Amino acid sequence: MRRHLWSTVAVAVMAILAVGSVPAPKGGPVGGGGGTGQDSQEVAPTPTYRELTPSRKFGRSWRAVVVSRSISRAELVALAEKLHRDDPSASVRFFDDDAKYKEYRLWDENYPDQRYPFPKDWTDRHHLALLNLIQDRAGERWELWAMDGSSHLLPPGSDGQTIAVIK
């Protein structure tokens, strides 16, 4: 719970700090190989995904895609790299289900308006990862974060939530 709240606050702060955006391209089946994150030696093909309705918040584009729950870490990193190359200023949320995505998107776009409730149970189960611009004293970089319920996507021995740094 604390990590989720921190993640939500951190995402909002980073979104405020980020500038510019590029319209999100349409998603769909993706073929070909993909690279890997800087801390990974695995190479995986880019998996199939489905793009959901993007949102705009704080002047930025927030894409959302549905992937298989059984996606591997290497496949997720390859997809994050592909989506980042296609739209280098957009953040991307990765879900394995879209049943309550519209509710989630409306909550996010309208936060803190309480007329739009946060679908906590659904989010905890189905929001797998987030690709977002991180800005701190070390500079800025794009990181792919594991969300609640997706610790299997973290590198071995990880004690944080970063799956990979995306170039």
Structure description:
- This protein is of the alpha+beta class and 167 residues long.
- The chain has one domain.
- 28% of the residues lie in helices and 24% in strands.
- Strands 1, 2, 3, 4, 5, 6 and 7 form a 7-stranded mixed sheet that branches.
- A hairpin with a 2-residue loop joins strand 2 and strand 3.
- The two termini are 30 Å apart.
- The relative contact order is 0.18.
The string of secondary-structure elements, in order, is HEEEHEHHEEE
Number of strands: 7
Uncertain segments: 1-40
The number of helices is 4
Cα gyration radius (Å): 15 Å
Q: Note the main sheet.
A: 7 strands, mixed
Task: Give the gist of this structure.
The chain is of the alpha+beta class and 167 residues long. The chain is 28% helix and 24% strand.
Summary tags:
globular; alpha+beta; 7-stranded mixed β-sheet; 7 strands; 167 residues; single chain
SSE layout and pairing:
Blueprint: H1 2-17, E1 50-51, E2 55-57, E3 60-66, H2 73-86, E4 91-95, H3 101-110, H4 120-126, E5 127-136, E6 139-146, E7 162-166
Parallel strand pairs: 3-4
Antiparallel strand pairs: 1-3, 2-3, 4-5, 5-6, 6-7
